[in-house]
Every structure is written in structure tokens, then in C-alpha cells.
Specification:
About 45% of the residues are buried. The chain has helices at about 5-10, 25-35, 60-70, 85-95, 120-130, 155-165, 180-190, 210-220, 225-235, 235-255, 270-285; strands at about 10-15, 45, 75-80, 100-105, 135-140, 170-175, 200, 260-265. It is an alpha/beta fold. Helix 2 (about 25-35) links the parallel strand 1 and strand 2. Helix 9 (about 225-235) packs antiparallel against helix 10 (about 235-255) and helix 10 (about 235-255) packs parallel to helix 11 (about 270-285). The protein binds flavin-adenine dinucleotide. Flavin-adenine dinucleotide (FAD) binds next to strand 3, strand 4, helix 5 and helix 6.
Length: about 290
């Protein structure tokens, strides 16, 4: 089913998984997806890793298995930096053949040797996907604190508007640790004529190191209340990870109470994290029993 139709019908709940690297990536990802599917999310998204890790070839097979073996709607990510139109067309044919009708259209991160060929920005990819007439439902990324490369807030919103005008159906947000950033962003979108539904993306922090890496790669700021949680958790990695899940669940409850279009949990392939989020949203009434 098209994700845009799900969002139009109700507030959604979804998970992200990534195809693991290594010898048995498909089996591993299937095992994780099977556990996540038990919570009956509205969809499970599967990342696409261009370059380095070489697991992009597994995105469509895993998405297909989620859709057809687990009976859950799948969202296949696709990045376009370093890709030609022919590469994208082949990927789309693969999706259509596999019966996956949802794609998240992304530019991808800049990396040495990964230059733009036929697509400079995500909006170029979205325009091309629309022109193909494949009937795919197209999601796109947004950034409550602005994209790290955007020199000004104005430019950040301008590029979101371009994604909307190119034909995106909805937006999924980058992770953030302060819900106020998301609420401010939501309001500003309307002022900048960006009227697409926005699904809020939440990632529990797992350690001091991980959250520092996130701050640099995603440009997410770390509020004092998160620093305090980590200080209180002390040096034990298990306590730090527990604090991260607790904090993420509090974020979810607050977002649920503030009328979000959808909640997307970056599960990091950890079913326990996904289950904790699911239990929390059942308990607060966001999800029906
Ligand atoms: P764009 O929309 O192209 O934006 C990139 C930058 O260019 C921004 O600064 C923007 O303001 C600017 N810009 C955009 N359009 C224009 C224009 N027309 N003129 C001038 N400037 C412009 N990465 C992966 O590799 N694999 C994944 O599976 C993946 N999944 C993701 C899922 C989500 C929900 C999110 C939020 C991110 C994901 N990413 C993934 C990371 C993403 O690829 C990076 O954040 C990337 O740096 C930007 O992607 P984008 O699609 O937002 O790009």
C-alpha cells in the first residue's frame, strides 16, 4: 500500500532497518525484519548504502521479503549521487518487479569519488522518478535543524519546497533530540509553503561516542537534558544505552501528544529498541491495542 495513503488515513508508526554488512546480510536482515514485523508497524524502511559498505544490492530483496513474506509495507531507500539515469531506471524496474511501491528518494552523502553524474540534488531524482511514470509513492528527507550543508535556513526550506514541487508525497525527518526543534520546523515549513505530511524520525542514543558522531554527521544538536542523562548513566555502556531508549520513548510520547503525522523509529537493527518504542506508544494510546 502507498505510504502517503496510510499517512492520510491515520498517524503512522514505522521502523527503519539497514542491510547488515558481511557474509549473510540477507538472512540477518530478514531475521531482524521478522522481529520488527511482529509489532505490525505501518511500514519498515530499508536503507541504501551507496559506495563503501556495498550493501545497496540487498535493499530491494529485503524490501521485497518484508512486503511479501512478512506482509508489512516496505519502503526502499535510494540515493542518487554517483548514479546515472540508467542506474536509477534499473533500480526502479527492480522495485516494480518485486512489487514494492514505496521509495525514499535521497541524494546521499558526499564522499570522495562519489560525484554527481545525472543527479545533483534529491529533487532531480524525484523529478526523474515522477517522469518515469512508475506510479511509485515517493518520500523525501527533511531536517528539523537544517541540513549540515545548507548555509542558511532559507536555503534549507527552499530545497524542501523544490522536493515538494518535484513530486514528493511526504517527508521523513532526520533524527533530533529536542522535540521543540521539530515543532518549530513544522511551523516554519508552512510559512515556506511546504505542506507535505512530515513523519518524525527518532533514534535512541546508545553511547556518548555514538551521539557525538551523530552530532557531526547529521548536524543534530545535543541538548543539556541529554548530556545530563548520559552523565547520570555513568560509564557502563548498558546504562548509557538504557538511558537512550528511555529518552527516545519520552520523545515519542510527547510527539504523539502533539499531533505528528507519523513516528519513525531508527531501530538500528535492534528489535529490543523497536519493541520498547512500540510498547510505549501502545501505553500512551497512540497505537490501538
Ligand atoms: P538534498 O535534498 O539534495 O539536499 C542536500 C543539500 O543540498 C542540502 O543542503 C540542500 O539544502 C541542498 N539542496 C537541495 N536541493 C538544492 C538545489 N536545487 N539547489 C541548491 N541546493 C540544494 N543516506 C544514505 O546514503 N542512504 C540512506 O538510506 C539514507 N537514508 C536516509 C533517510 C532519512 C530519513 C534521512 C533524513 C537521511 C537519509 N540519508 C541516507 C542521508 C542523506 O543521504 C543525507 O542527509 C544527504 O546529505 C542529503 O540527502 P537529501 O536527500 O536530503 O539531499
Amino acid at each position: 500500500m502507498r505510504i502517503a495513503d496510510k499517512i492520510a488515513a491515520r498517524q503512522t508508526f514505522s521502523f527503519e532497518i539497514f542491510p547488515p554488512k558481511g557474509e549473510f546480510p540477507l538472512e540477518e536482515a530478514r531475521a531482524v525484519a521478522t522481529e520488527l514485523a511482529a509489532d505490525r508497524p505501518d511500514w519498515i524502511s530499508v536503507t541504501y548504502s551507496a559506495g563503501g559498505s556495498g550493501n545497496s544490492a540487498n535493499t530491494v530483496p529485503i524490501a521485497s521479503s518484508i512486503e511479501h513474506e512478512l506482509g508489512v509495507t516496505a519502503l526502499a531507500h535510494l540515493t542518487c549521487l554517483g548514479s546515472t539515469r540508467a542506474d536509477v531506471d534499473a533500480y526502479v524496474s527492480g522495485l516494480v518487479d518485486a512489487g514494492v511501491e514505496n521509495v525514499l528518494a535521497l541524494r546521499g552523502d558526499r564522499a570522495p569519488g562519489r560525484e554527481a553524474i545525472d543527479f545533483e540534488h534529491a529533487s532531480d531524482l524525484i523529478e526523474h522518478l515522477r517522469a518515469l511514470g512508475s506510479g511509485l509513492c515517493i518520500g523525501a528527507a527533511c531536517y528539523p535543524e537544517g541540513h549540515v550543508e545548507s548555509p542558511t535556513e532559507e536555503e534549507s526550506f527552499e530545497s524542501l519546497y523544490k522536493k515538494q514541487e518535484a513530486g514528493a508525497d511526504y517527508l521523513v525527518s532526520q533524527l533530533f533530540f529536542d522535540n521543540e526543534d521539530f515543532y518549530r520546523f513544522r511551523e516554519k515549513c508552512l510559512r515556506h509553503r511546504v505542506r507535505l505530511p512530515i513523519v518524525a524520525g527518532i533514534m535512541p542514543f546508545t553511547s556518548v561516542k555514538q551521539i557525538q558522531r551523530m552530532a557531526f554527521t547529521c548536524g543534530a544538536s545535543i541538548p543539556a537534558k541529554v548530556v545530563k542523562r548520559l552523565v547520570l548513566a555513568g560509564d557502563d555502556p548498558a546504562d548509557q544505552a538504557r538511558a537512550g531508549v528511555e529518552y527516545a520513548c519520552e520523545q515519542l510520547v510527547d510527539l504523539a501528544a502533539n499531533g505528528v503525522d507519523g513516528l519513525h523509529v531508527y531501530s538500528m537493527n535492534k528489535p529490543a529498541v523497536a519493541h520498547a518504542a512500540h510498547e510505549t506508544l501502545l501505553a500512551c494510546g497512540y497505537l490501538g491495542a
